[in-house]
UniProtKB/TrEMBL annotation:
Cofactor(s) demanded: pyridoxal 5'-phosphate
Segments crossing the lipid bilayer: none
Alphabetically ordered keywords of this record: Aminotransferase, Pyridoxal phosphate, Transferase
PANTHER family membership: GLUTAMATE-1-SEMIALDEHYDE 2,1-AMINOMUTASE (PTHR43713), GLUTAMATE-1-SEMIALDEHYDE 2,1-AMINOMUTASE 1, CHLOROPLASTIC-RELATED (PTHR43713:SF3)
Protein's name according to its UniProt entry: Aspartate aminotransferase family protein
Domain of life: Bacteria
Similarity-based family: Belongs to the class-III pyridoxal-phosphate-dependent aminotransferase family.
One example GO MF annotation: transaminase activity
Cited Pfam families: Aminotran_3
Taxonomic placement: Bacteria, Bacillati, Actinomycetota, Actinomycetes, Micrococcales
InterPro entries tied to this protein: Aminotrans_3, PyrdxlP-dep_Trfase, PyrdxlP-dep_Trfase_major, PyrdxlP-dep_Trfase_small
Length: 435
């Protein structure tokens, strides 16, 4: 309660702004993930690793646009390329352009994709990836992971972080199917569980077009695959003629130079990318093997979009691709590893019921002494302390992601000194929790 009082005292202008904004925007925000009670913090400026809010406070940004701002806010190369494109190319002409082809070729090389198409958002990319899988296999159903989030596309709104009371045992039929998803077209399996997946595949394999999953789940803090799990999923897909779609909207470049699939050594048929590839501009993509992407070439499915591959976004994409070298990402990852080491030491020293989980330049503190392997484990972690830990940071000028399901990001703009602020803040919290 004292921390919430402090929050309210620190953020009167944000409260006013939210009241005003709520008259035109539902909840006063432009995406429901931006909202929290009593009100979100409204930002007026972002530079490097720092934000300024409407109350004039500076906040160290560890959310970094839900991981989209991997290169840092207003990265100078992104700014230079976008400004150059604005002056010399223009904003939109809905015809092919050399800039889009150049970025596509870069992604072929970096991500090992035969072919790809650009979109504006992760949601769109997931929708088209599912459509491509359905067109390719001529099957309708898909499988998704229990609790997993993949954007706003209807078919993937099944079992998104459901209340435990609503879902019953893991073997139960599909819960909470939204009104526009046909029953029997989405099957839900727990992450890290081959038994349930094999069961569904042996029963319904011939109806199933694809499995859609984050290779490492980054919408339940961070949940990593058991040794051999992803390879087993790949083998099961091959056996049943089911396509494997890896949603790398969140992992992508933050997981390593060529994303989580290459880092973990399992190749999907289709991949979706967004967030970190765009440097803050609305860029996403879906792509994969030429065999599957042939469905777009020969018209088995169509893919549209007025803004796809527009010059400003492509300029930002080229800048991000140039800036995110192996070396640059390794520097950020090393800072992340050092930060995690320090936080682990504090957890041990104060015997906190917590552990850290990381992938690439992202990390999180999970408030549980046992590893989290799936959604149900995740829901059993201590959300009360997780919320306090978040609020503690916000009240002291550190913005970790507002949803407790997110993780921090060490961008190319963060230094070790800045991450040390997180560490010392965590030490203060540990002391307070043990006092
Ligand atoms: N897939 C995953 C794994 C995501 O985390 C998100 C967004 O957070 C999406 C898809 C949807 O992306 P967008 O918000 O760009 O539509």
């Amino acid at each position: 309660a004292a921390e919430w009082e402090k929050f309210t005292a620190n953020t009167p202008a944000s409260a006013d702004h939210n009241r005003q904004a709520s008259k035109s925007l539902p909840l006063g925000v432009t995406s429901s993930f931006q909202h929290w009670e009593p009100h979100p913090i409204s930002i007026v400026k972002a530079r490097g690793a720092w934000l300024t809010d409407v109350d004039g406070r500076r906040l160290l940004d560890l959310s970094m646009g839900f991981g989209a701002m991997l290169v840092g806010h207003l990265n100078p190369t992104v700014v230079a390329y976008v400004e150059e494109a604005l002056q010399s190319v223009g904003t939109l002409f809905v015809t092919p352009s050399p800039t889009a082809t150049e970025v596509a070729e870069r992604y072929q090389t970096r991500f090992g994709l035969d072919m790809l198409r650009f979109t504006q958002s992760g949601t769109e990319s997931l929708m088209y990836a599912v459509r491509a899988a359905r067109a390719y296999t001529q099957r309708k159903a898909i499988i998704k992971i229990e609790g997993g989030y993949h954007g706003g596309y209807d078919a993937l709104q099944v079992s998104v972080k459901p209340a435990l009371a609503d879902i019953g045992p893991a073997e139960a039929p599909i819960p909470d199917v939204p009104f526009d998803v046909e029953a029997g077209t989405v099957y839900v399996v727990p992450y890290n569980n081959m038994d349930r997946l094999n069961e569904i595949l042996s029963e319904h394999g011939r109806e199933i077009a694809a499995i859609v999953m984050e290779p490492v789940i980054e919408n339940l803090a961070i949940v990593v695959p058991d040794e051999g799990y992803l390879a087993a999923v790949r083998a099961a897909c091959n056996e049943h003629g089911v396509l494997l779609i890896f949603d790398e909207v969140k992992t992508g470049l933050t997981a390593g130079y060529a994303g989580a699939s290459q880092r973990l050594g399992v190749k999907p048929d289709l991949i979706t990318l967004a967030k970190s590839i765009g440097g803050g501009l609305p860029l996403a993509a879906f792509g994969g093997t030429s065999d599957v992407m042939q469905v777009v070439v020969d018209g088995r499915m169509a893919h549209f979009g007025t803004y796809n591959g527009n010059p400003l976004v492509m300029a930002a994409a080229r800048a991000v691709d140039e800036v995110c070298t192996r070396e640059a990402l390794e520097v950020a990852e090393t800072i992340n590893v050092t930060t995690l080491d320090h936080i682990d030491e504090i957890i041990r020293e104060y015997q906190l019921p917590a552990h850290t989980v990381a992938l690439g330049v992202k990390g999180c503190i999970t408030w549980s002494t046992t590893p989290v392997r799936n959604y149900r484990d995740y829901k059993a972690t201590d959300f009360g302390v997780a919320e306090l830990s978040w609020l503690w940071g916000v009240n002291r000028g550190i913005l970790t992601p507002p949803g407790l399901d997110e993780q921090w990001l060490v961008s190319l703009a963060h230094t070790q000194e800045e991450m040390d602020v997180l560490v010392s803040d965590f030490r203060d919290l540990a002391q307070a929790l043990r006092a």
